[in-house]
Design brief:
This protein is an alpha/beta fold. The chain contains seven helices and six strands.
């Protein structure tokens, strides 16, 4: 029996020209998570990440907090992290453009922010049900296969503690797959997952079982309440 820890990246740069870059707070969230685990003596036998910059930056922060001299090493026995493109996030701009071809204003007000996510929810629903094909993106079955392939790899090749650093979409998809939920439930899980949040699966060679979802034990202090973010 092993434990798989799935971590969503730290706060990125929502609304900026380049979203795929951690904010200063996102870096702090990542380091704090590593510190929390270090305080509890947690180590990992393997680390798997998506290939996006925010995934690498989040892992680097966690590794710093864990006290690892080289962020490219997961633990003394683990070697370099395994890069898994199937753990990359969907393209939210392409999803929205598939149902709303007009350019959106920068979401810098509460109403524009809500409008952005209403469109995203609608676009994801249509993509996951095969109604639209966002430009440059895989089909939803292909996206799902990338996520479930990573889970199968963990079951086949590992035991003990394994860490995955990814994004909200793949993590919610993994949870939905394990629980057998509908696409609509996966979307709701996705849109509620917080930055640097931890989800845990127990696993054996046959299956994964959900233990926790979207937890922030490393930020559960009054002085860190303002570090809880979603985008």
């Amino acid at each position: 029996m092993g434990t798989l820890y799935l971590v969503r990246h730290g706060q990125a740069s929502f609304g900026a020209q380049d979203y795929d870059n951690l904010s200063e707070l996102g870096q702090k969230q990542s380091v704090r998570l590593g510190e929390y685990w270090r305080e509890r003596g947690l180590t990992f036998d393997a680390v798997i990440t998506g290939t996006l910059r925010r995934h690498a930056q989040t892992w680097a922060g966690i590794a710093e907090g864990l006290g690892l001299a080289n962020p490219q090493q997961a633990a003394s026995t683990a070697g370099a992290p395994l890069l898994w493109p199937g753990l990359n996030e969907y393209d939210s701009e392409a999803v929205i453009a598939a149902i709303h071809p007009h350019k959106l204003e920068k979401p810098d007000t509460p109403e524009l922010y809500r409008h952005h996510f209403r469109l995203l929810r609608d676009g994801l629903t249509q993509w996951m049900n095969g109604v639209v094909s966002p430009k440059g993106m895989p089909t939803y079955p292909e996206f799902l296969a990338g996520v479930t392939g990573a889970l199968a790899h963990v079951r086949k090749h590992h035991e003990g503690n394994v860490l995955i650093v990814s994004s909200g979409g793949p993590i919610a998809t993994a949870v939905g797959h394990v629980l057998g939920t509908t696409p609509e439930t996966i979307i709701e899980l996705n849109l509620r997952i917080r930055n640097s949040a931890v989800t845990e699966f127990a696993f054996n060679p046959k299956r994964h079982t959900l233990q926790t979802y979207n937890t922030l034990p490393h930020l559960d202090r009054p002085d860190l309440a303002s570090w809880v973010t979603y985008a």
